[in-house]
C-alpha cells in the first residue's frame, strides 16, 4: 500500500485502512471527483476531525493521500510530477474543510506555486453527507490581470465538468499566449525580479542592466517584477503575495528561470525554491555564468571555476531539488554536476588546488612585470565599465584585432600591445576585464592575478560610455572598485567615449563636468589629443621619478 502523508498520529487502525483505501479508488478522468468519493472523503474527515487531501492525476488515479489538522493540509514534495514551461502540474488537489469556509488564501497560493491543474475544497452544505465543492484554476494572461478563476459551488451531482477538456484548453491558451514556446528550442526564458528598498526608478535602472546581462547571455526576457519593501527580509527576501504573482506570471509566460537582481543567501534560495518549482538564480550567478562562457584562456577558466565554486560552496549544504536547479546555471552550464554534486570536502579540495594553480599564475605574471620594468617601458591599463569600448580603443590605437563586441563582458582575458607615441617613445597598453555594479566579491578574488596587472600601471585610462544614460553611476561603480583594489592613487585619465552617439552640443559641458577627454574609439581622428595627453602625463611622471632618484 502506498504511503500516507501528513499527520496520522492518534488515528485508529480502521481509520488508517480507510485512508489507504483511497489509493484504490478510480475516478473517470473527465470527472473532477466522483460523488461517492466526495461523500466518503467528507465523512471520514469529520470523523477524525482533520482535513484530508487527495492529489489525483489526469488518468483518474489517486497519487497522494494527505492528512492534515483541523485548519490545513501540507502538500508534500511532488518531484516526480514536473511541470514543463507553460504547462500545469498534471495533478488536481481535492481536500476537505471542516467548516463552511470555501477556498482559502493558502489553497490559492498552493494552486499558483505548485501549478496544480485544479484546486478544490469540499465543505458542508446542509449536512455532512451533502457537501459542496468549490473549484479554482489558474487563468492565462487576460485583460483583467485575474490570476485564477473561482467557479460557482458545485453539488455532488454536478461533478462531470470535463476536467481533461478544461485543462487541455487552458494549456493550449497558455502555449498560444507564450508565443508557441518549445521546450526543444534550448533557449532559456527568464523572469527578472527585484526586491528593493530604494526608489522604484533606481530599481528599474538596475533591472535594465540585469536585462542587458541576461540578453548578452542569450536569454529571452519574458517579464519583470519589482517589489518595494521598507526593509529586506533576511529569510525569504520576497513576500508571499509577490512570490505567488511571480509563479503565475512564470506559468503564463512559459518562463524557465527566475533571475533575482539581488544576491540570494543560501537560506533565501531554499525558502524560494521550496515553494516555486522553477530554476532560481541571482545576479551573481548570472555574471559568473557569463564569465564561464567568455573565458578562453586556461588562466581565465581557472579563475571563473574558482569563483563559481566559492559562490556555490555554502549553498551545497543540502542536496535537494532546489539545489539541483540552482547548480544547473543557465542552460545547464557552469562547472557541471561532476563538480557541484560533490560533498563539501571535495569542493574545498578543488578550491585549494585551483588556488595553488592561480598562485603559480600570479608568480609567473609577477616575473613578466619585472621583465617589463627592466626594459623601462611605461604601462598604461585601460579600465572601465563593461561594454564601455575598452577593446575597441586598444584596437584603434595599436591596429590590433582584439575581440570587441557590443555586449557585456566580451573581454575577460587581458591583452597587451605596444603603442608608439609621436616622439618615438613606446609604452605597453593593456586591455582589462570590464567592471560592473556589485561585481561579485568571489570574482574579484579569483581574478586577483589578472587585476594585479593594474598595480604596475603607470597610468589608468578610465573609459566612460557617455551614451549610456547611467554613466554617472557607472563612474562611481568603477571608482569604488578601484578603491577596493587600493588603486585610487594611481594617475587616472577619464576618457569620454562614444561621442558619435550623443548630441555634439553637450560634449563641451560633459568634458568639463566629468573632467575628461572626449573621443570616439572607432574614429582614429579623435584620438590624437588623447595620445598627446597620455604622452605628456607619462613624461611628467618619469621626470618626477628621475628627479627623485637624482636627489
Number of domains: 3
Taking the sheet with the most strands, its summary is:
7 strands, mixed
Compute the number of strand runs.
17
Beta-strand level of the residues, as a percent range? 15-25%
Task: Give me the side-by-side strand order of the main sheet.
Answer: 1-3-2-4-5-6-7
CATH topology of the largest domain: Rossmann fold
Structural class: alpha/beta
* CATH secondary-structure class of the largest domain: Alpha Beta
Low-confidence stretches: 318-328
How much helicity do the residues have? 25-40%
Distance between the termini: 94 Å
CATH architecture annotation of the largest domain: 3-Layer(aba) Sandwich
Give the mean pLDDT: 84
How many helices? The count is 18
- Shape label: elongated
Written overview of the protein:
The chain is an alpha/beta fold and about 550 residues long. The protein has a seven-stranded mixed β-sheet, sandwiched between helices. Strands 13-14-12-15-16-17 form a six-stranded mixed β-sheet, with helices on both faces. Helix content is about 40%, strand content about 20%. It has three domains: about 5-175, no CATH class; about 185-340, GTPase HflX, N-terminal domain (Rossmann fold), CATH 3.40.50; about 375-550, P-loop containing nucleotide triphosphate hydrolases (Rossmann fold), CATH 3.40.50.300. It is built from 18 helices and 17 strands.
Amino acid at each position: 500500500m502506498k504511503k500516507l502523508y501528513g499527520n496520522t498520529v492518534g488515528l485508529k487502525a480502521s481509520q488508517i485502512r480507510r485512508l489507504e483505501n483511497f489509493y484504490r479508488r478510480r475516478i473517470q478522468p473527465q470527472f473532477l471527483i466522483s460523488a461517492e468519493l466526495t461523500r466518503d472523503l467528507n465523512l471520514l474527515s469529520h470523523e477524525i476531525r482533520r482535513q484530508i487531501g487527495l492529489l489525483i492525476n489526469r488518468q483518474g488515479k489517486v497519487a497522494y493521500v494527505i492528512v492534515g489538522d483541523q485548519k490545513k493540509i501540507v502538500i508534500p514534495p511532488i518531484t516526480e510530477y514536473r511541470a514543463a514551461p507553460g504547462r500545469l502540474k498534471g495533478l488536481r488537489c481535492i481536500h476537505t474543510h471542516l467548516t463552511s469556509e470555501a477556498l482559502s488564501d493558502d489553497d490559492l497560493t498552493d494552486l499558483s506555486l505548485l501549478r496544480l491543474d485544479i484546486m478544490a475544497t469540499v465543505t458542508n452544505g446542509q449536512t455532512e453527507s451533502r457537501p459542496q465543492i468549490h473549484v479554482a484554476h489558474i487563468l492565462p494572461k487576460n485583460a483583467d490581470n485575474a490570476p485564477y478563476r473561482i467557479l460557482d459551488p458545485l453539488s455532488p451531482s454536478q461533478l462531470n465538468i470535463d476536467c481533461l477538456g478544461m485543462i487541455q484548453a487552458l494549456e493550449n491558451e497558455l502555449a498560444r499566449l507564450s508565443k508557441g514556446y518549445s521546450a526543444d528550442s534550448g533557449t532559456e526564458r527568464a523572469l527578472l525580479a527585484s526586491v528593493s528598498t530604494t526608489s522604484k526608478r533606481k530599481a528599474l535602472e538596475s533591472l535594465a542592466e540585469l536585462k542587458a546581462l541576461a540578453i548578452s547571455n542569450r536569454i529571452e526576457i519574458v517579464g519583470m517584477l519589482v517589489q518595494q519593501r521598507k526593509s529586506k527580509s533576511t529569510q525569504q527576501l520576497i513576500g508571499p503575495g509577490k512570490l505567488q504573482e511571480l509563479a503565475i506570471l512564470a506559468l503564463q509566460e512559459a518562463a524557465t528561470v527566475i533571475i533575482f537582481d539581488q544576491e540570494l543567501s543560501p537560506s533565501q534560495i531554499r525558502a524560494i525554491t521550496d515553494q516555486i518549482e522553477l530554476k532560481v538564480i541571482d545576479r551573481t550567478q548570472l555574471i559568473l555564468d557569463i564569465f564561464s562562457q567568455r573565458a578562453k584562456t586556461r588562466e581565465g577558466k581557472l579563475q571563473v571555476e574558482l569563483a563559481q565554486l566559492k559562490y556555490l560552496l555554502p549553498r551545497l549544504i543540502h542536496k535537494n531539488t532546489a539545489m539541483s536547479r540552482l547548480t544547473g546555471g543557465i542552460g545547464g552550464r557552469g562547472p557541471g554536476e561532476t563538480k557541484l554534486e560533490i560533498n563539501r570536502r571535495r569542493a574545498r579540495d578543488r578550491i585549494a588546488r585551483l588556488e595553488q594553480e592561480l598562485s603559480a599564475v600570479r608568480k609567473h605574471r609577477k616575473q613578466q612585470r619585472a621583465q617589463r620594468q627592466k626594459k623601462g617601458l611605461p604601462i598604461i591599463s585601460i579600465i572601465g565599465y563593461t561594454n564601455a569600448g575598452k577593446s575597441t580603443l586598444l584596437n584603434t590605437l595599436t591596429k590590433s584585432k582584439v575581440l570587441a563586441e557590443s555586449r557585456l563582458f566580451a573581454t575577460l582575458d587581458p591583452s597587451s600591445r605596444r603603442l608608439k607615441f609621436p616622439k618615438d617613445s613606446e609604452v605597453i597598453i593593456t586591455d582589462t576585464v570590464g567592471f560592473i555594479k556589485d561585481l561579485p566579491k568571489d570574482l574579484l578574488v579569483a581574478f586577483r592575478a589578472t587585476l594585479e596587472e593594474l598595480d604596475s600601471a603607470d597610468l589608468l585610462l578610465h573609459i566612460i560610455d557617455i551614451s549610456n544614460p547611467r554613466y554617472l553611476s557607472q563612474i562611481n561603480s568603477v571608482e569604488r572598485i578601484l578603491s577596493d583594489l587600493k588603486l585610487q592613487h594611481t594617475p587616472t585619465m577619464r576618457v569620454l567615449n562614444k561621442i558619435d552617439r550623443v548630441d555634439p552640443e553637450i560634449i563641451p559641458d560633459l568634458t568639463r563636468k566629468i573632467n575628461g577627454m572626449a573621443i570616439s574609439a572607432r574614429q582614429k581622428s579623435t584620438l590624437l589629443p588623447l595620445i598627446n595627453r597620455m604622452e605628456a602625463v607619462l613624461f611628467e611622471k618619469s621626470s618626477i621619478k628621475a628627479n627623485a632618484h637624482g636627489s
